[in-house]
Specification:
Layout (H helix, E strand, L loop, with lengths): L2 H17 L1 H30 L3 E3 L4 E3 L5 H5 L3 H34 L4 H15 L2 H11 L5 H8 L3 H8 L13 H25 L3 H9 L4 H30 L3 H4 L7 H12 L2 H23 L3 H4 L1
Antiparallel strand pairs: 1-2
Helix pairs in contact: 1-2, 2-14, 4-9, 4-11, 5-9, 9-11, 10-11, 11-14, 13-14
């Protein structure tokens, strides 16, 4: 076939892509979508399907006999306590991160300029460059009995207050490194940058004219913050909460290194799959954070979280 005969076909194909640019987009996305569908979704669905398999406690083997026993076992008191403990920690970390992140994000968005803004960006992102495990181990030393945190509190005369606080049942532990408070502090430190940056981005999009109009109408700063700034910053807070909530929900390293004894969902999955070999029960537990995150995403979507990402 000559070149003259081939060229009309090429022109026709080009004309199709020119008239229907969506075809070109689908062609470009075909490879990534196939990879996502086969590798990620396929492996995920295979894992969830194994949640219906049967685990023989006597032979320590998995059989393909389908059963709902693994899903029903999630509602046992011990397993339900694990799910509730993880969910409460994820919610507390999210709320605390939002409260701590807002002032810094506000200063970065409204007042920091030039080199100072670059300094704050680096200061926020610098902890993210370090290894996650290194940060977790470093905090175990900081919160130990003779660590920096207790040394600092003793010099401030607050050590008796800390000792009384650690006796509370909800906190638990002889030291900060073996208490629920210490675990909470480590979670907040590690995930705080993921909350600061979305809030800062949302506050930067806040038009200064709205603040000036609020002041011109006689609103006090607290009223301006409550009725103007906070509603417009909610999408940024919701976007940051997606990271803090989901990352805390699935973490299994920090609960192993810091805090009192007690499983989290991630620890339970690791223990069932790695130590015991009970893959069906591990698969059943993986369904819990997926459902919780799906419900949470549906909730924050109403707050405009996806528009602020």
């Amino acid at each position: 076939m000559s070149i003259a005969q081939r060229s009309p076909r090429r022109v026709n194909i080009s004309a199709v892509f020119w008239r229907k640019p969506v075809y070109g987009l689908l062609l470009l996305l075909l490879g990534p979508l196939m990879w996502f569908g086969i590798v990620y979704l396929g492996s995920l669905l295979t894992l969830l399907w194994q949640g219906f398999y049967t685990f023989d406690d006597f032979t320590m083997s998995v059989t393909p006999d389908l059963t709902f026993a693994n899903l029903l076992a999630l509602f046992n008191p011990a397993n339900y306590d694990i799910i509730l403990r993880t969910l409460v920690m994820a919610m507390c970390v999210t709320v605390a991160s939002a409260i701590l992140a807002f002032p810094m994000a506000w200063y970065m968005a409204r007042y920091a300029q030039g080199k100072w803004k670059a300094f704050f960006y680096i200061a926020v992102m610098l902890p993210m460059w370090a290894s996650y495990i290194v940060k977790a181990y470093a905090w175990t030393l900081l919160l130990a009995r003779d660590g920096v945190a207790q040394w600092f509190l003793s010099h401030l005369g607050l050590e008796p207050l800390l000792a009384a606080f650690l006796t509370l049942p909800a906190v638990g532990g002889n030291t900060l490194s073996t208490s629920g408070l210490g675990r909470f502090l480590v979670f907040v430190y590690i995930w705080l940058p993921f909350m600061i940056l979305p809030i800062q981005a949302a506050l930067e999009r806040l038009p200064p004219s709205l603040l000036q109009a609020s002041a011109d109408l006689g609103a006090h700063p607290r009223q301006t913050f409550r009725y103007v700034v906070l509603p417009l910053a909610v999408p940024g807070v919701a976007a940051g909460s997606i990271f803090t909530f989901s990352l805390t929900l699935g973490d299994f390293i920090v609960p192993q290194l810091v805090g009192p004894p007690g499983y989290f969902i991630g620890n339970m999955v690791y223990s069932q799959q790695g130590a015991i070999g009970n893959m069906p029960m591990a698969a059943a537990f993986t369904l819990v954070p997926m459902v919780l995150i799906a419900l949470y995403l549906a909730f924050v979507k109403r707050l405009g979280a996806f528009d602020a990402l």
